[in-house]
Amino acid sequence: MNSFLIAIGLALCLLVFCVLYRVVFGPGVFNRIAAISAIGTKTLVILIIFGYFYNRVEMFIDISMVYALLNFIGCVAAAKYLEDEG
Amino acid sequence: MIIRGEDIIIRTIARVLVPFIQLYALYVIMHGHYSPGGGFQGGVILAASMVLLYITHGYSEVNRKFSVNIAALFSSIGVLIYSGIGFLCLILLGNYLDYSKLYKLLNVDPAHARSLGILGVEIGVAFAVMAVMFSIFFDISTGGISPEDEEEKD
Amino acid sequence: MEVTLLVQAADDAFRILENARGQAVDLLDTATKLTSDTRLMEEKKFQAVFVGAQKKKSALQNFVVTFLLLFAFWALLSGKFDTFHLSLGVICSFIVALIGHDLLFANLRVGDMRVIVKRFFAYLPWHLYQIVVANFQVAYLALSPKMPISPKIMRFKTKLESDISWVTLANSITLTPGTITIDIEEGEFVVHALSEKLADDLDTGEMEDRVAHVFMEADHIYIQDVLDVSRIFAEFR
């Protein structure tokens, strides 16, 4: 089980680096916002995998849920701001 | 029917999610001694839920639930709860925030009284943090003039 | 002689067909008028239900169901079931339900919720199957060397009525790989599809039918079909 989770965690980290390209080089700010939101969803799963390794999954599920909520609210707020004044 | 505005998807999802976000914030406050959380974190999540309602539905929806005047009131109430508990411990012949002296009021043993005292203080902190966060966001986004005053000016 | 009889028979046949056509057009006219009247009446009744009478009785129903839902969510989050934490849960759910009781059920009647939840859980396996199938299609498109995609933006009008069903359909379309809902402009979905095959899969309208079945809407689908057919007939006249 441990090695399976390590493999998944590493694969997700690799995908995060792939999306990071769009954050750095994305022409325009909308690409960057969408890429940050995508990185956020992968961060959730990586956090829960960390929780398995520390044997305290319930604590990390709390943290992941908070980050999911704040990611959503941040994305909506940024989009609203850019719609009105971009 | 009940169809208004252009961004239907964000409005619907926001209005369905907001009660659950608020309940999650209260869960984070109440379980501060056991899992990560506490007063400040729960207050921020509560403020974030009100901000979500504000940016998707406009000022009229938030005004019914949590207007700026109530935010000013809540910040003071939060500080009142915090220092009130402190002074209560002082009155009961202890130090300033020595919660163990509260056991006489609550009929529990002193260790339990410490836990309940911390919970009360966290609730006060959450009130203050939520109110101040919402006021800061509101002031930055509208420049201090509430939309009611703007409408009256027109 | 036989040719004349044949021509006469053809004339009679055509006259009968003309009469039948005239009667069919009249029937469709009456049907259109009736259905548009019923639709108007239904909309007025619907508006009266949701604007006037919903205030008092449904407010209490909304509050109670919101309170129960939130308390179940609290019990799910906090694994402790001793008296102190449960009473805290009751107080917190009460406060949140007091503040936001009109948020969760703005467009649905609470009494419908049992049927809707049951049908929703029956809809999910079909949706998962669609996701898996579309996954394979998009993977084939993305991994083949010349990448035969032909992205197009399609619009379609929907027969769903309330905003929750619109959002459910938009989310279902976006979750299925290959199609993304861009916008909903006044009842018209704007969807970006990655290839012709995915757009055709969406165009059949099966997902829309199933979502309408989940939310118990579009019961008067046949009326809409009659209206469409009558419009076509009016063009032929």
Structure description:
The complex is a heterotrimer of chains A (86), B (154) and C (237). Chain A has 86 residues and is mainly alpha-helical. Chain A has one domain (2-85). Chain A is built from three helices and no strands. Chain A has helices at residues 2-25, 29-54, 57-85. Chain B has seven helices and no strands. Chain B starts with 7 loop residues before the first helix and ends with a helix. Chain C is mainly alpha-helical and 237 residues long. In chain C, strand 2 and strand 3 (188-193) form a beta hairpin. In chain C, helix 4 (113-143) packs antiparallel against helix 7. Chains in contact: A-B, B-C. Chain B binds chain C through residues 1-3, 6, 8-9, 11-13, 15-16, 18-20, 22-24, 26-27, 30-31, 65-66, and chain C through 46-47, 50, 66, 70, 73-74, 77-78, 85, 88, 92-93, 95-97, 99-100, 103-104, 106-107, 161-164, 166-167, 170-171, 181, 183-185, 187.
What are the SSEs and their pairings?
The complex is a heterotrimer of chains A (86), B (154) and C (237).
Chain A: H1 2-25, H2 29-54, H3 57-85
Helix pairs in contact in A: 1-2, 2-3
Chain B: H1 8-30, H2 39-57, H3 59-65, H4 68-91, H5 103-106, H6 110-142, H7 147-153
Helix pairs in contact in B: 1-2, 2-3, 2-6, 4-6
Chain C: H1 2-53, H2 56-77, H3 83-99, H4 113-143, E1 152-157, H5 163-175, E2 179-185, E3 188-193, H6 196-203, H7 206-214, H8 221-236
Antiparallel strand pairs in C: 1-3, 2-3
Rounded Rg of chain A: 15 Å
Number of strands of chain A: 0
- So how many helices of chain C? 8
The SS-based structural class of chain A is mainly alpha
Number of domains of chain A: 1
What's the helical proportion of residues of chain A? over 70%
The ordered H/E elements of chain A are HHH
Mean pLDDT of chain A: 90
| Distance between the first and last residues' Cα of chain C | 35 Å
Strand content of chain A: under 5%
Low-confidence runs of chain A: none
* Share of helix of chain C, binned: over 70%
- Portion in beta strands of chain C: 5-15%
Query: Spans of chain C with pLDDT under 50 lasting ≥5 residues?
Result: none
Counted by DSSP, the helix tally of chain A is 3
- The geometry of chain C reads as flat
Computed CA radius of gyration of chain C, to the nearest angstrom: 26 Å
Secondary structure category of chain C: mainly alpha
Largest beta-sheet characterization of chain A:
none
